[in-house]
Amino acid sequence: MKYVRIIRFGIITGTFIGFMSALFFSWLYGANNLYPSSPQFVEQFSNNLIAITVSAVIWALMGVVFSTAQMIFEVESWSITKQTVWHFITTYTGYTILAILAGWFPLNFWYLLQYTLIFVVVYIIIWLISMYVARRNVAKLNQELLK
Amino acid sequence: MEVHLEIDAGQKPMIIYRASEDGQATQELFEDLKDLVDRQKIRIEQDGSYHYLPVQKIKRIYTENKLVYCETATERYRLKERLYQLRAILPEHRFLQISNSEIINRFYLKQFDLSKTGMYQVIFTDGQVTYASRRYMQAIKRSFKL
C-alpha cells in the first residue's frame, strides 16, 4: 500500500531527525543525559524516559506531516500555485503545532512571527523556482516544436 | 529480408527492423514502416455496430469519469480499452502521454504554455486547450530528445 509506505517513511525519518537533534543539543549544552527538549519540557513529566517517549511520538508525527504533504504535489489537476499554497498550509499548521507541543519553540509572539516569515519566504522561493523551471520547460518544448 | 511474427503474451507490441547499414533505402523503408503503424486501426463500437479508425486520425484519447474517449478532428467515440492498453498499441513516435488521463497525437500539437497559476497547457492546432501534468514533464521532454 502506497499510504502505508508514505506514513512509515514519515515515522522513521521524523523519529531519526528528532533523535539526532536531541542528541546534538544534549551534547551542545553539556548535559550528562539525553534530553529530548528543553528542561521546561522535561519537567512536565515525572521522569525523563516519559519525556523521551512523548517526544518520539511527536517527532514521528512531524515526519508524517511532511511525508503525507508530499502527496499534494502528486495531485495532477492542481497548478503549481495551488500545490504550493496547500503544501504550505499543511506543513505550517501541522509542524507549528507539533513543534510547540515538543517544546521546541518559545511561546513568544516575536519569535513566532519571525519563524512564520522565514517559513513564508522559503515557500515563495520554492514557488518562484518551480514557476521558473516550468516556464523554461515550456520554452524548450516550443523551440523543439517550431523546428 | 525475412519477416517474423512472434506471439508472447507479456510482450509490448513492437516492430524491430534490423539493417546492416544506414542508407537511403534503409531510411525509406523505416519511414514506410512508421506510416504502416500509423495506419493501424482501432475498433470502435458505435450504436451497436463496429467500425475501424486509423490511429493517425485520433487527436486525443482521454479519461473522463473513468470512461475512455477518443477524439478526432470532428468526432468523439467511447473506447472499451483502458488508457494503458491503448498506450501500448499506439505508435510512440506519434502519441505522447501528457497526464494520467490523457494521450495526445503529436501531429495535432501546436504548442505548450504555462498558465499564470502554473498549469502546463497543451494547445492543439485547432485551438483546443488541455492540461499536461508536471509529473509527465520529464517523459515529455525525453520524447522531444531534451
TrEMBL record, chain A:
Highest taxon listed in the record's lineage: Bacteria
Family annotation (InterPro entries): DUF3021
Keywords, in A-Z order: Membrane, Transmembrane, Transmembrane helix
Pfam families xrefs: DUF3021
Residues annotated as transmembrane: 7-29, 49-73, 85-105, 111-134
Protein name as catalogued: DUF3021 domain-containing protein
UniProtKB/TrEMBL annotation, chain B:
Keywords from the named record: Cytoplasm, DNA-binding, Transcription, Transcription regulation
UniProt entry tagged with the keyword Transcription regulation: yes
Name of this protein: HTH-type transcriptional regulator
Domain of life of the source: Bacteria
PANTHER family named among the record's database cross-references: HTH LYTTR-TYPE DOMAIN-CONTAINING PROTEIN, TRANSCRIPTIONAL REGULATOR-RELATED
Organism, as annotated: Convivina praedatoris
InterPro entries attached to this UniProt entry: LytR-like, LytTR_DNA-bd_dom
One Pfam family per UniProt: LytTR
Ranges of residues in domain HTH LytTR-type: 42-146
